[in-house]
Amino acid sequence: MTKSCLTALLLACACFVGANERFNDPFSPISQTALSQLAEPITAENRLLQHTSCNINSLLLIDHFPLAQLKVIGLIHYANHSVVLWSTPDNVIIDSRLNDVIAQDQWQITAIETRRIVLQRCQTPSLQRSIPL
User: Fold this and answer.
1) Which fold has domain 60-132?
2) What is the pLDDT, as a whole number, of residue 63?
């Protein structure tokens, strides 16, 4: 194929790929830091965990749903950490890691094992819960 045919094919497929997506051009004179400042990152709301035993630096996720309404849909094990995938009642998928605090009733992830996830309640650290996979 010639260069013009490949360009035409790329332009035709751009509408299916997502023309509004931002891609990093390695030949662009704009630095990577400038690109990261232009893009608006998706951030989780991180409210302070007051009067709890959880680490104040822990990330608070999915804080508008109780734990009973959240469903574990997957677990990804990497070499140095694991990720738990949660589904909310409105079918949004959220990923969390060890020591993140999830749910409205503030449960901290204390262990991610092959067959279960261990949670500890921030307000009452003696209360633990295990979610089998």
Assistant:
1) SH3 type barrels. (2.30.30)
2) 87
